[in-house]
Design goal:
Helix 4 packs across helix 5 and helix 5 packs parallel to helix 6. The N and C termini lie far apart (55 Å). This protein folds into 2 domains: 180 residues, Rossmann fold; 106 residues, Nucleic acid-binding proteins (OB fold (Dihydrolipoamide Acetyltransferase, E2P), Beta Barrel), CATH 2.40.50.140. 24% of the residues lie in helices and 33% in strands. The protein is α+β, with helices and mostly antiparallel strands and 370 residues long. The protein is globular. The strands form 4 sheets. The protein has a 6-stranded mixed beta sheet with strand order 7-8-9-3-10-11, with helices on both faces. Strands 2-1-4-5-6 form a 5-stranded antiparallel beta sheet, with helices on one face. The protein has a 5-stranded antiparallel beta sheet with strand order 14-13-12-15-21. Bound molecules: adenosine-5'-triphosphate and magnesium ion. Magnesium ion binds next to helix 2. The site of adenosine-5'-triphosphate (ATP) has 11 residues, from strand 2 and helix 2.
Length: 370
């Protein structure tokens, strides 16, 4: 097994493997209140050394607040924060941000406009010897592939280049941890994918441990060794992207990582379940009496059938795939992702089938709002 495979296997395990002292970051039961709301509510999580953990969740759920407490820009009301096994924040101890060895990259362009690229990158190194600063700046600029850009000013750079300078500035003091708060949000989609891939490569090469905040579900799953889904100040689920995507523990988590529909299901005996979109099987022994199964667009397919009880209501061309919206007999709508070879016009009658290819996720039925 290669080193990379070993690392992936180790990181894919759900819980830290009993080495908290070597964890890059440990957040223990941390709470932060901004009257009247609780921005971060009793959060505990561990970022292992060399790990990339992505933090997703709706606006206002506490992602930035959590990052700012780890960086030391905000003081928690309760709980402890450890960096590299050292307490940096607790009831009796407070280490200021400049002594935490944490690098920060924010969404907005935070480069100093009056400093050159080299000046920006060397900004956090002021306490070191001049010769060291020059060498380190050159090394980091090489790492982010901006050799020769040292004398330029921020306004002479593209958006992607500016983002890489911001990254270089955060990496330069060799922080033990990098905290990135939506670092790509201001970039256009094409540039974003490119800068993101580049950033991952740079951080892996620097053997950094990183905590990323993102609104983008795809970004969360493709960048993170693990993903933490936050909801109203709490971490609702944390795990490998594959696990959180395929085995969400709640409706909220299911919808946070992609399009998800929930169909009421009933037992038909022998592990069989019946739904409006057709049967499926689930060998679980203990299923709730009132339940719903989670269906994603790639779990559903259909056959054109003039006697079918469902109807195609819309179709979205996506190149290699077509995303169909189908109305089931109850009026419930869901979308199916099918290969471009299956072409059906809106208005056509169809027979819908479930094709999970894996055991479906069963969740207790939600209480209906009155
Ligand atoms: N300095 C502050 N004073 C008062 N309330 C604050 C302060 N900072 C954040 N909040 C509140 O705390 C909650 C969490 O804010 P936070 O910035 O952590 O959210 P977020 O998850 O980063 O959201 P977004 O995705 O929009 O950036 C929000 O309700 C916000 O209004
Ligand atoms: Mg935020």
């Amino acid at each position: 097994m290669s080193k990379v495979q070993q690392r992936d296997q180790q990181l894919a395990t759900e819980e830290p493997s009993g080495l908290p002292a070597s964890a890059a970051v440990e957040v223990r039961m941390v709470t932060k209140q901004f009257e009247p709301a609780t921005a971060v509510d009793d959060v505990s999580l561990t970022l292992r050394r060399g790990e990339f953990l992505t933090l997703v969740g709706p606006s206002g759920c506490g992602k930035s607040t959590l990052l700012r407490m780890i960086a030391g820009l905000l003081e928690p009301d309760r709980g402890e924060i450890l960096l590299g096994g050292r307490i940096v924040s607790s009831a009796g101890r407070w280490v200021p941000p400049e002594d935490r060895a944490v690098g920060l990259v924010f969404q907005e362009n935070t480069l100093f406009p009056h400093l050159t690229v080299a000046g920006n990158v060397g900004f956090g190194l002021v306490r070191r010897a001049k010769s060291h600063i020059a060498r380190r700046v050159a090394d980091v600029l090489e790492l982010v592939e901006l050799v020769g850009y040292g004398d330029r000013f921020p306004h002479e750079l593209s958006g992607g280049e500016r983002q890489r300078v911001a990254l270089a500035r955060a990496i330069a003091p060799e922080p033990t941890v990098l905290l990135l708060d939506e670092p790509f949000a201001n970039l256009d989609p094409n540039l974003r994918a490119q800068v993101r891939a580049h950033t991952v490569e740079i951080l892996r090469r620097a053997e950094a441990s990183a905590l990323f905040v993102t609104h983008d579900q795809q970004e969360a799953m493709s960048m993170g060794d693990r993903v933490a889904v936050m909801n109203q100040g709490r971490v609702e689920q944390i795990g490998a992207p594959k696990t959180v995507f395929h085995l969400p523990k709640s409706h909220f988590v299911a919808s946070s990582l992609g399009e998800a529909y929930f169909l009421p299901a009933s037992h038909t005996g022998g592990g069989g379940l019946s739904t409006e979109a057709g049967p499926c099987s689930c060998p679980e022994e203990t299923l709730p009496t009132e339940m719903e199964i989670m269906v994603r667009p790639h779990d559903v397919t259909f056959d054109a059938d003039p006697n079918g009880e469902s109807v195609v209501t819309a179709v979205e061309f996506q190149g290699a795939f077509l995303l169909y919206e189908v109305e089931l007999p109850s009026g419930r709508r869901l979308r199916c992702l099918l290969p471009h070879t299956i072409e059906v016009d809106p208005g056509s009658k169809v027979r819908v089938r479930l094709e999970h290819g894996h055991v479906p996720v069963v969740l207790p039925a939600r209480v209906k709002e009155k």
